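S1.2 Input.
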Amino acid sequence: MKIGIDIEEVKRFKALIKNRAFLSRVFSPEEINYCLSKKNSAEHFAVRFCGKEAVWKALSNSKIQITSVSFKNLNSGKPVVLINNKKKSKIQISFSHTKTVVAAVAIVED
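S1.3 Output.
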């Protein structure tokens, strides 16, 4: 088992998300639509970025780019990990966020 964790400050993303080029470089169109549909979109963008970092760290694979990692929520609300748009059931992700700080933990099963 491998573990990755990341923590970010939301205020950093309040400015970054105004840059559409940044959004399209880092997030999938589905992630952008999901986050923009939320009242506090900066929190949602920040936590997804945090999740991408956590997955990348857990994989310890420099061949996987952070932009290859994305997330989709199941009907239950649970996020699932996609790499190059393919669901990865051996990677679990957990997000947590407040108005100021976000965190994500990724676990990769062997």
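S1.4 Remarks. The beta strands are 2-9, 69-73, 79-83, 86-87, 91-97, 101-108.
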